[in-house]
Amino acid sequence: MTEINPEKTVLIVDDDPHIGELLKLYFENEGFRVDVCFRGDEVVDRVQQLNPDVVILDLMLPGMGGFDVMRELRRYSSVPVIMLTARGDTLDKIVGLELGADDYFAKPFEPKELIARVKAVLRRASKSNAFFSSESQASGDDVISYTDLEINRTQYLVRLGDEELSFPPKELELLYFLASHPNRVFTRSQILENIWGFDYYGEPRTVDVHIKRLREKLDVVDHPDWNIKTIWSVGYKFEVKG
């Protein structure tokens, strides 16, 4: 039986009209609303107009490359993004994840597998929202504060010293998750389950990439009272001293 997604919209961004039309047919057959975009410099406007539930984003695009599109999207949007590329370069995958992509899929591909990835990303987004909603109800507070650090998950803002920073959604969710459990060690698998979801197709390296990005941003100021600490062969913890 076909799984119907009456309120789910997918935006397909690919410069190849044949791929765009093929994916449009497959996704519509699964009950999705579909829009197709062929140029990178049109994506941001299209996302603002459509408010899609997920974006499938090719890297090689006219007008603006996929990485630049990803950077622009993450300035204001937490929409799930699956990056699509003909290149199998591991560096591309790492860069895409660092920029805030939720998954990465290489061409050539089987459309049904891509649809399965999209459904998994949507389930993860739903679980993540449910997790943060339940945590908010339990704590009654969407703000965590330490010395020179304030994390606001409602506004998706981090105040570091006297500076207010806007973090990509997954980075902020990861930081909030660790900071809300001070001195507790989490394995990479536990972090993946809580932030990306139980059915994540990725790999533990995803956590390492996001931790690296967090440290690069947080380490611009001294923070002797707290730190994101690596527990070798295990995972990470938000260490609070004293």
Summed up, what is this model?
By secondary structure, the protein is α/β, with parallel strands linked by helices. 42% of the residues lie in helices and 22% in strands. The N and C termini lie far apart (57 Å).
Termini separation (Å)?
57 Å
Q: Find the count of extended strands (DSSP E, 2+ residues).
A: 12
Backbone CA Rg = 19 Å
* Number of H- or I-type helical stretches: 8
Account of the 3D structure:
There is one protein chain. The protein has 242 residues and is of the alpha/beta class. It folds into two domains: 9-125, Rossmann fold, CATH 3.40.50.2300; 141-240, Winged helix-like DNA-binding domain superfamily/Winged helix DNA-binding domain (Arc Repressor Mutant, subunit A, Orthogonal Bundle), CATH 1.10.10.10. 42% of the residues lie in helices and 22% in strands. It contains eight helices and twelve strands. It has helices spanning 17-29, 43-50, 66-73, 90-98, 111-139, 169-179, 188-196, 205-218, and strands spanning 9-13, 33-37, 54-58, 81-85, 103-106, 143-146, 149-152, 157-160, 163-166, 186-187, 226-231, 235-240. The strands form three sheets. A five-stranded parallel β-sheet has the order 2-1-3-4-5, sandwiched between helices. It has a four-stranded antiparallel β-sheet with strand order 6-7-8-9, with helices on one face. It is elongated and about 60 Å long.
